[in-house]
Specification:
The protein has about 180 residues and is an alpha+beta fold. Helix content is about 35%, strand content about 30%. A hairpin with a 2-residue loop joins strand 6 and strand 7. Helix 3 packs across helix 6. The longest helix is centred in the middle third of the chain and has 12 residues. The protein is globular. It starts with a strand and ends in a 9-residue tail after the last helix. This is Activator of Hsp90 ATPase homologue 1/2-like C-terminal domain-containing protein.
């Protein structure tokens, strides 16, 4: 497992994840840019081309595609937060770097745990083995606690978020 890191980009907290995948850059590019492929492993997909300047609605917030350089770089903003995928060859495979610039350091652990879960679905998807949402989230709580400790973040917001999703509202994030 490769953990994400918390960095600073333009004075804002940013989550960075790096994965080495056993698939060529062109194959990974399709997985990160084609809506039907994104739906299989990413938390949300919009019906983008993608093309620079394209603006779409995603759950009431705007997605704007800001950079497209196939098959190397795809960047967009969602609700004012920048996101990007950068792909480079790595031997016979591909090095993927995903960056999400966030607004609230207090949500860094929760957000990192979520991205960790979704990025863990990518390689199985590319291998033809789908990982369900339930399977992917099985260890979300432990992952969240690890990120909270590493980032020096208060774990309570993430625990409350997890409890609310589970409908138990007890705030302990227990499964």
């Amino acid at each position: 497992m490769t953990d994400g890191t918390l960095e600073t980009i333009d004075g804002r907290p940013a989550l960075r994840f790096e994965r080495v995948l056993a698939f060529p850059v062109e194959r990974v590019w399709r997985a990160v840019s084609v809506p039907d492929e994104l739906r299989a492993w990413f938390p949300a997909a919009v019906d983008w081309t993608p093309a620079v300047g394209e603006i779409l609605d995603a759950g009431g917030a705007s997605v704007e595609v800001t950079e497209v350089d196939p098959p190397r770089r795809l960047a967009w903003t969602y609700a004012g937060q920048p996101y990007s995928f950068d792909l480079t060859p790595d031997g016979d495979g591909c090095r993927l770097v995903f960056v999400h610039v966030i607004d609230d350091h207090g949500l860094a652990a929760q957000t990192a745990a979520g991205w960790d879960v979704y990025l863990s679905r990518l390689e199985p998807y590319l291998s033809g083995r789908a990982v369900t949402e339930e399977e992917a989230h099985e260890h979300w709580g432990e992952t969240h606690e690890r990120y909270a400790a590493r980032f020096g973040a208060d774990p309570e917001p993430g625990r409350r978020f997890a409890a609310a999703l589970r409908g138990n509202g007890d705030g302990n994030g227990a499964a």
